[in-house]
Amino acid sequence: MKRLHAELALLPGGFAREVLIAWDEQGRLTEVQPDAARPEGAELIAGLVVPGLPNLHSHAFQRAFAGLTEYRGSTQDSFWTWRDLMYRFAGAITPDELEAIATQLYVEMLRAGYTSVCEFHYVHHDAAGRPYANPAEMSLRLVAAARRAGIGLTMLPVLYQTSGFGAEPPREDQKRFLNDVAGLLRIVEALRAQGVRSGVAPHSLRAVPPAALKDLLDGIAAIDAGAPIHIHVAEQMQEVDDCLAWSGQRPVQWLLDHAPVDERWCLVHATHLDAAEREQAARRGAVIGLAPSTEANLGDGLFDLPAWHGAWGIGSDSHASVDAAEELRLLEYGQRLARQQRNVSVAEAMWSAAVAGGAQAAGRPVAGLAVGQQADFVLLADAMLDGLAPAERLASHVFASHRREAVHEVWVGGRRVVHDGRHAEAEAAERGFLAARARLREALR
Question: Which of 118, 250, 351, 422 supports an S-S bond with 154, CB 3.0-4.6 Å?
Answer without folding.
Answer: 118
